[in-house]
Inverse folding.
């Protein structure tokens, strides 16, 4: 069997694109971690204000270890803020805290792309782990069973669909965050655009993830068609 160069090419491209995206978000995060916000609010304080203003009194704000590990956990009903966000009054901290609250608001309001994304989690997990097996079985079967390999490709494609659905969920959480800190909390134009820089850099990591998923999917389609 000839050596599969497409694997190396795809892996290198994904590494470069993902590397640039995560370097960029770290750069913006570090830059704006050095500037305190004008209202001197910490990440946890701003999160509490946002959640309360939206009637989400039950949602807890918790401290989580690591850097940029902030997330909203709908099953636990908690916004988890990392070391550099929870107790920090930096521009980065308020942006990230507000973004995670944006997810909590999406959940509370039943934002459709978020609902679809949640439903897709188990489907994507099962499909992506079984896709390769189905594709290999499909390729080993006689030609009248070529639909089996196609089914494997469709299963593989769920990862790309998941990444695609993640994009509007992430950008919408950031839009909500920016809108709240500007119009409800009362941060100025300059601070809001600094927050926007951090959140845009974070959103680009999801664009990079989608790009990687599509590239991997195209590689699989190419390989299967070549083998047929
Ligand atoms: Zn997010």
């Amino acid at each position: 069997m000839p050596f599969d160069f497409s694997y190396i090419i795809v892996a290198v491209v994904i590494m470069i694109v993902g590397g640039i995206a995560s370097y960029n978000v770290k750069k913006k995060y570090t830059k704006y971690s050095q500037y305190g916000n004008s209202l001197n609010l910490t990440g946890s304080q701003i999160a509490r204000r946002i959640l309360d203003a939206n009637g989400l009194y039950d949602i807890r704000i918790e401290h989580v270890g690591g850097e940029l590990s902030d997330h909203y956990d709908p099953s636990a009903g908690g916004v988890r803020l990392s070391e550099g966000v929870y107790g920090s009054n930096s521009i980065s901290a308020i942006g990230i805290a507000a973004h995670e609250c944006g997810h909590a608001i999406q959940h509370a309001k039943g934002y459709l792309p978020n609902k679809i994304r949640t439903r897709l989690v188990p489907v994507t997990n099962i499909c992506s782990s079984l896709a390769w097996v189905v594709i290999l079985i499909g390729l080993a079967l006689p030609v009248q069973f070529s639909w089996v390999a196609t089914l494997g490709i469709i299963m593989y494609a769920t990862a790309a669909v998941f990444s695609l659905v993640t994009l509007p969920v992430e950008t919408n959480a950031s839009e909500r965050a920016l809108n709240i800190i500007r119009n409800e909390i009362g941060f100025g134009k300059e601070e809001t655009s600094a927050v926007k820089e951090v959140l845009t850099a974070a959103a680009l990591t999801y664009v990079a993830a989608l790009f990687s998923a599509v590239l991997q999917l195209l590689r699989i389609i190419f390989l299967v068609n070549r083998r047929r």
Summary: Strands lie at 60-64, 71-73, 78-82. Residues 64 and 82 are 5 Å apart (CA to CA). The mean pLDDT is 95.
